[in-house]
């Protein structure tokens, strides 16, 4: 079976200033992601996580290797991929509904359908009562829900999420994680989610790809199985959760130390 997304020997080097050496952000990334999987990517700061997502989103081109989406090389952005960033990037002069409709205008969905679809997706993220509010009238968590609704409304196959909950308080983050899982189960999207949070990775991922410090390579892909979780149980308190958490923490620890060492050498140079 072909993977939905396939990174094949993907490298990315950013040119240096003047004659200076470039920055090798990613090197030899090999990763296959099946359709419908929730994949989380973790790694030390600056290891190239956002770069990896930008390449998949078609915002950047790889220096080496290729990324295949449904077996075809990614050559640019497209409506088959929706992105949610850490910052909400909502239009302040538009209501929640207007923001969701905005993405649909861009792909030429007729007006009446736009309104209908925007309502449907705002309901999916639990914001039916807030569709006429402007971003400044919404909490951080609600704004991020609007951003998620906007990305889902044009029905991309793949949802790319770059630390979407990082700016939220712990409680809002946890409830949005639960909500995202519910939405993912309902919609069957393929999700690639970047985070710094180990707990977040274990809570959300079916697999967690741990990257090395820069240049980022895939150090290990950890399958997550939290066992049978009953509806009134907090999965975060299960022994399986602690086990996976510790595994990923151990893999990251060495890489973070290496990244800090690199940073010290760079500032000393
Ligand atoms: N447009 C660019 N031009 C030059 N260098 C870049 C560019 N974008 C990223 N880099 C460099 O590439 C490396 C990887 O950056 P990237 O933002 O992908 O890492 P990250 O893992 O997402 O970091 P963080 O966890 O801190 O958000 C960094 O050293 C960064 O400075």
From TrEMBL:
Q: Which SMART domains match?
A: AAA
**ABC transporter domain boundaries:** 5-238
Recorded hits in Pfam families, A to Z, give: ABC_tran (PF00005)
Database matches in InterPro entries: AAA+_ATPase (IPR003593), ABC_transporter-like_ATP-bd (IPR003439), ABC_transporter-like_CS (IPR017871), ABC_transporter_ATP-bind (IPR050166), P-loop_NTPase (IPR027417)
> Which UniProt keywords are given for this protein, alphabetically ordered?
ATP-binding, Nucleotide-binding, Transport
**Superkingdom of the organism of origin:** Bacteria
Q: What is this protein called?
A: ABC transporter ATP-binding protein
Organism field: Streptomyces genisteinicus
């Amino acid at each position: 079976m072909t993977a939905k997304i396939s990174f094949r020997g993907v490298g990315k080097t950013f040119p240096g200033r003047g004659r200076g050496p470039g920055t090798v952000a990613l090197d030899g990334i090999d990763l296959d992601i099946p359709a419908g999987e929730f994949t989380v990517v973790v790694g030390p700061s600056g290891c190239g996580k956002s770069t990896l997502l930008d390449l998949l989103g078609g915002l950047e081109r790889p220096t080496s290797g290729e990324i295949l989406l449904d077996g075809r090389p990614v050559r640019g952005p497209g409506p088959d991929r929706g992105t949610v960033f850490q910052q909400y990037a909502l239009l302040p002069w538009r209501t929640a509904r207007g923001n969701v409709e905005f993405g649909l205008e861009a792909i030429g969905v007729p007006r009446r359908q736009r309104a209908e679809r925007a309502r449907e997706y705002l309901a999916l993220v639990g914001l039916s009562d807030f569709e006429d509010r402007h971003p400044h009238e919404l909490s951080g968590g609600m704004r991020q829900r609007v951003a998620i609704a906007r990305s889902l409304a044009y029905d991309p196959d793949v949802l790319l999420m770059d630390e979407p909950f990082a700016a939220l308080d712990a409680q809002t983050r946890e409830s949005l994680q639960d909500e995202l899982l519910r939405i993912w189960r309902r919609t069957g999207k393929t999700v690639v989610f970047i985070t710094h949070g180990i707990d977040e990775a274990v809570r959300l991922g079916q697999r967690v790809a741990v990257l090395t410090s820069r240049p980022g390579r895939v150090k290990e892909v950890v399958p997550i199985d939290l066992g049978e979780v009953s509806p009134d149980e907090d999965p975060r308190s299960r022994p399986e959760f602690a086990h996976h958490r510790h595994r990923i923490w151990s893999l990251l620890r060495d890489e973070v130390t290496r990244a800090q060492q690199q940073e010290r050498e760079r500032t000393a140079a």
